């Protein structure tokens, strides 16, 4: 595997990990008042497109990172819409 | 330009735009109590690595999006460290 893929995996690990506390907090507290719906919508759709971009460029680091972040964002978005 | 680059630019536009409200809010309010330092550190370093990954893969959409997000994250991080 090329060295550059390691950078991709490291980047993906960090930015995906960064979302975990927020997703867990929302999941546990069911409180989403402080979370902007606009932010959640932009990020959810944005990381989905990054996933497609990674797929088209055969970039596994991008697909894994953005795939997981997409799921985390969906959790946040669904809770935001349900619990307002 | 290949169609796939348009997806990259759209993805970058959305995920970068998503950071703007947060960065502006911090810049105006100088309040960062609700922002996790860990999140800010992980994201700042993570998007920097995505920038390097984009550079190594000659992906302009990734370089532009992660370059701007990196600057926005630096603003949030500096304010977080200064105003606690």
TrEMBL record, chains A, B:
Major subcellular location class: membrane
Question: What UniProt keywords apply to this chain's record, in alphabetical order?
Answer: Membrane, Transmembrane, Transmembrane helix
GO terms of molecular function: sugar transmembrane transporter activity
Bilayer-crossing regions: 6-24, 36-56, 62-81
Q: Which Pfam families match?
A: PQ-loop (PF04193)
Asked whether the UniProt record includes Transmembrane helix among its keywords, one would answer: yes
Name this protein carries in UniProt: Glutathione synthetase
Species lineage: Bacteria, Pseudomonadati, Chlorobiota, Chlorobiia, Chlorobiales
